[in-house]
Amino acid sequence: MFCPKCGKKNKEGAKFCANCGAELKRRSNNEKSASTKEKALGSQPAELQSGSKAKNEVQKSDGSRAQKVQKVRKNAWMRWTITIAVLAIVAGTGFFIYQNNQAPSNTKSNSADYTATVNSESESSSSSSSKASSSKASSISFPKSKVEGTIEDAFGDISGTTSVYVSPTDSSEKVVSHNGAQRAASNIKLFIMITAYNAISEGQLNLDDEYTLKDSDKVDGTGAIRELTAGTKLTIQRLIDYMMEDSDNTAANIMIRELGGMDAVNKQIKKMGATDTKLERMLMDTDALKSGKDNYTSVTDLGETLKKIYNHQMISTKYDNAMLDVLKQNKNRTKLPHDLPNEATVYNKTGEFDDYGVENDAAIFGNTKGSFVIVVMSEDGQRNEQINQMNSFGSVMYKGLLEENE
C-alpha cells in the first residue's frame, strides 16, 4: 500500500509508514469497488468513442445503403415507366396499323354489297371483265334512268334500228338498248386486231415481220394501201395501224390471211365470249355478201370487248396497252366524239356501210374524273340523221358522266 503523505510503498498490512511514520488506513471494499469502477470508467471513453465511431460508421453505412436502395428503386421505377410508355406506344401503333389494314377490307366489302345491288338491276354479262369489276362500284356517278332517257331522246324517233350500250369502265353497271346482232361493217376489224395481238403474245407472229404487197391483195373501199405499188414491204405493225387508223380494207384482208384465215379469227372471237360476233366474209367480198354472208357483232360484244382491253383483261397489260394506243390514233372522229372538248381522251373504232344504212361507233371516253364505254350501232337509217344524233348523244353523255359528275 502507498503512504498518503509521502507516497512510499509499504508492506501490505502495515499500520504506519516506514518512511514518515504517518498512519496508514486500509480502504474499504466500497472504496476498492469505486476505484475499480473508476479505472473501468477511465478505460471506457476510448471504447465508447470507438463504439461511437463504429456506430457512426454503421449509421453512415446504413445511410449510404439506404441511399443506394433508394437510387435503385428510383432507377427501377424509371425503367418500368419507360417500359410501360414504350409498350403503350407500340400497342397504339399496332392498333393504328391494324385499323388501317382492316379499312380496305371493309371498303371492299361495302363496295361489293353495293355492286351486288346494282347487278340485280343491271343486265347480266358473260364477260370476265364484268365479273372482275363487280368487286367495286364505279368511280363516276351512273344515273341509269337519266342515261335511258338520254338514249330515248337521241334515237327514239329516228329511222332504222339503233342499239346502244353505255357503261363505266370500272363497273358492271350498264344500260343496253335493243341489243342484238347487227352488220358490223368495219367494227369487225377490232376483233381482227385482237386476234393478231394474241398471236403475237403466243409467239406465232412478230410485229416486225414483213409482208410484200401484191396487186391481188388490193380491194376497194376505205384505206390507202391499194394506192401503194406492188412489192412494197409492210410490217405486221404497219398493217395493223393501217387497218385500225385508216380502216384499211386491204390491210384487214392481209391480216386475216396472215393469221390463218377466218376460222382463226372466229376461234378467238369464241374464246372471248362474244356470242353475237362472227366473221363470215373477207372485206369487200361482194359475192359472199350476195350469197347472204356478212360480218356481225352487237353493242354488248363491242362494249364488253373495249372494257376488257381498257382494264387489261383481254390479253395482257403490254398488248392491251398496245391496242389502246392504236385505237387512240383512229382518224375518224366524226360520230360520237365529234363534239367533245379537246381535253377528252378518246379510243374508238367506227364502221359504216352506206348500202345498208349502217353507221356504227364504239368508243371509250375519259378525263381526269373517270371513263366510260359508249357504243351505238345503227342500220337501215339515214346517214345525216344518224351522225347528227350520234354527235349530240356523245356530247350529252360526256357532260353528264364526266363533267357534271360530282
From TrEMBL:
Q: Which residues form the Zinc-ribbon domain?
A: 2-24
The source's domain of life comes to Bacteria
Residues in Beta-lactamase class A catalytic domain copies: 164-377
So where does this one cross the membrane?
77-98
Q: Which intervals of the chain are annotated as region Disordered?
A: 27-70, 120-139
List UniProt keywords, sorted A-Z.
Answer: Membrane, Transmembrane, Transmembrane helix
Fetch the PANTHER family from UniProt.
Answer: BETA-LACTAMASE, BETA-LACTAMASE-TYPE TRANSPEPTIDASE FOLD CONTAINING PROTEIN
Report the protein name in the record: Beta-lactamase class A
Give the source lineage, highest ranks first. Answer: Bacteria, Bacillati, Bacillota, Bacilli, Lactobacillales
